[in-house]
Amino acid sequence: MPEYRRAYVLGGTFFLTLVTYHRIPLFSEAENICRLRLAIAKTRTERPFEITGAVILPNHIHFLWTLPPGDTNYSYRVSRFKILFTRMIRGKRSLPKNVSASRRKHRESNVWQRRFWEHVIRDESDLEKHLDYIHYNPVKHGLVSCPHLWEYSSFSRWVERGGYRDDWACSCGGRKAQVPNFGGMNFGE
């Protein structure tokens, strides 16, 4: 079995990718997005962290989380909100009958992929690249033509804060969009 090694940095900022089981488009339903937000909010009350950036797509999520100084445990937070969300969908003790023996042994349902992708943000440039990736992701997947058209993203919050122009990577009105270059980066999709 391969050894999975996670990088932990005290008070670090982490890019995370979480994918639904078999890429089922759970987040195509607004009520599941509400459930996800509730699960994350509950997790944040138990173990605080800042959501620096986020995008919710039909079958996966990207986050940038910044942990409090002296804290490294993003894995616990990911696990906790996955459990809370799964319970909101499935109930507290119910596992579907079609879940494999391995998933049953690990008390996993058919909601999330077992693992998640993480990357430690190294510097301001790395943060900007990952924010761009998060905000451009709905366009990349053909869900919208411009980042400002996707409502399940932190893009509008960043525009309000002056981090982006509202027409960033926009193709509205026949404009040619300036697509960011993501070459050589791995995002866990």
UniProtKB/TrEMBL annotation:
Keywords for the protein's UniProt record, in alphabetical order: Membrane, Transmembrane, Transmembrane helix
This protein's record includes keyword Membrane: yes
TM segment ranges: 7-24
Superkingdom in the source lineage: Bacteria
One GO term (biological process): DNA transposition
The Transposase IS200-like domain, residue ranges: 9-137
A Gene Ontology molecular function term of the record: sequence-specific DNA binding
Name listed for the protein in its UniProt record: Transposase
Organism of derivation: Limnofasciculus baicalensis BBK-W-15
Classification of source organism: Bacteria, Bacillati, Cyanobacteriota, Cyanophyceae, Coleofasciculales
